[in-house]
C-alpha cells in the first residue's frame, strides 16, 4: 500500500514538472521548424474531420506524426539527463574482466546516449522521421529510453504522453506557433537533480483563421 501511495503522489509531483517542460520543448521546436508544424497541422485537422471534432483516446493514438515529433523532442531533451541504479549484487560484464561490485552506483547517461551519432546520424538535427516504424526497427532497442527501461521504468509514461499529445493537438489546431524576437537560439537549460528543463521559452501564437470541426479555444 505504501508503494501504491508513493506512486500516486509521484504522478502529480513528478508528472507536473516533466509534462510542463516537455510541452515547452515541443512548442519551441515546432516554432523553429514551421514546415514540420504544418505537416502536423494537416494530420491533426484530418483526424478531427474523421472524428467529428472529438479528441478521443483512439484519435490521439492514430496521430503517428504527432507521436514522432514528441519522440524526437524527448530524444533531444529527455526529462532526466541520467539514470542511477545501485548494484544489488556483484555483476561481471561479459568477457571484459570488469566486475561491478555490490552497492556500486551505476550511472546511465541518457542525454549522451540519445545523441550517439552511430544510432542517430546528425544527432543535433530535429528530425521526427527518425521514429517511423522502419527507422525504429533499425536501431538498438536501448538507444532510446527517455523514461527509463525495464520493470523500473517510469510508471506514468502513458499518462504523461497522453496529456502532452492532447495539449499539442488542440494548440496546433487553433494556433500557429512562431518565433519572436525574444526566442532564444540555442535554448538555455536548467538542470536540477538531473532533470532537464528550459530556462526560458518565449514564442508567439497566431490564431488560425480556419478552425473546422472543433470548438475554438
From TrEMBL:
Its cofactor is heme. The keyword Ribonucleoprotein does not apply. Heme binds at residue 154. GO terms for molecular function: heme binding; iron ion binding; monooxygenase activity; oxidoreductase activity, acting on paired donors, with incorporation or reduction of molecular oxygen. PROSITE patterns: CYTOCHROME_P450. It is found in: Endoplasmic reticulum membrane; Microsome membrane. Its main location: endoplasmic reticulum. GO terms for cellular component: endoplasmic reticulum membrane. It is a peripheral membrane protein. Gene3D superfamilies: Cytochrome P450 (1.10.630.10). PANTHER family: CYP9F3-RELATED, CYTOCHROME P450. Belongs to the cytochrome P450 family. This is Cytochrome P450 3A24.
